[in-house]
Amino acid sequence: TWHVQKEIQFRGKNWLLRMEPKPKLYSATTVTANLSLLFFGLLVSIGLGLLVYSLIRRVDTCRFALEEREFVEESLVKSEERFRQVVDSTGDWVWEMNASGLYIYSSHNIENILGYTSAEVIGRHFYDFFLPEDYERQKKQIFEIFGRKEPFRHFVSRNVHKDGHTVILDTTGVPLTGIRGELIGYRGCDRDITARVRAEEESKKNIERLKKITEGVVHAMALAVEMKDPYTAGHQRRVAQLACVIAKEMGLTEKKIEGIRIAA
Could you tell me which InterPro entries the record lists for this protein (predicted)? Predict the structure, then answer.
């Protein structure tokens, strides 16, 4: 054991200052405890560092996810805008309906076709616009297609315009199904073919008139020939009838049979 002592004067008095080490100040237990504390502090520091690093990574991941989400949302908005522009430029009425035939989306072109705005159409059924005399028949046909979950093309229907006149639409649609295969609706488009149908009807009328005129000319020529020779009167008509019977037995089309009749 070592010690140090020194005499000093303080405030007019003599003092003896004695210094010596504390017993077992640097014992093995004390050293072990200090090392354990140091090791624990080191572990805590490492843990806190890893936690901070993890938090920084999470913040970076969240920021990246948010930036990516904003980019996707912006892209979707631009894509939707381009889709609307394309739809509006085609002139067709693009729509979407649920499984009960209720419109849940309608493009603005509906106003040019049936006179209604998109807001007036959404929430109404497709069959609400059919002509009264076609209502039940066309409604049944569409729901039969819905039941088979089949796509359809060129379904022609007569519809009532907002001002009351008839509009003929050519409809195309594809089914929308859920995860389990259940029908959730249809998406498609309608095209106004009123002018085309009217032109086709007028063309058919013109062809029918021309056909009647041609038959009249042929009949007049046949009568003129028969008047020259009374012994062959009615011969052409009998030949035509016989030729038509033979053509039917041969299985020719109605158009070819009609041509044979005129020729005979």
Answer: HD_GYP_dom, PAC, PAS, PAS-assoc_C, PAS-like_dom_sf, PAS_fold_3, Sensor_kinase/Photoreceptor
Letter string b/e over residues 13-34, b meaning 16 or more CB atoms within 10 A of that residue's CB: eeeeeeeeeeeeeeeeeeeeee
11: pLDDT strictly greater than 70: yes
Model-level pTM? Answer: 0.55
Measured CA to CA, the distance from residue 213 to residue 231 in angstroms comes to 28
Mean pLDDT across 205-210: 85
User: What's the sign of the alpha-carbon dihedral 55, 56, 59, 65?
Assistant: negative
Taking the alpha carbons at both ends of the chain, their separation in whole angstroms is: 151
Residue 206 neighbours by CB distance under 10 Å: 10
Residue 99 to residue 181: CA distance in whole angstroms: 13
What phi and psi, each to the nearest 5 degrees, are found at residue 62? -65, -40
Pairing status of strand 13-19 against strand 4-10: antiparallel
The CATH architecture one would assign to domain 91-192 is 2-Layer Sandwich (3.30)
The helix or strand, by DSSP H or E, that contains position 14, with its residue range, turns out to be strand 13-19
Most confident of 15-24, 83-92, 129-138: 129-138
Question: Which two structure tokens, joined as six digits, stand for 19?
Answer: 């210094």
More confident site: 168 or 14: 168
Hey, which residues does 176 pair with through a beta bridge?
A: 185
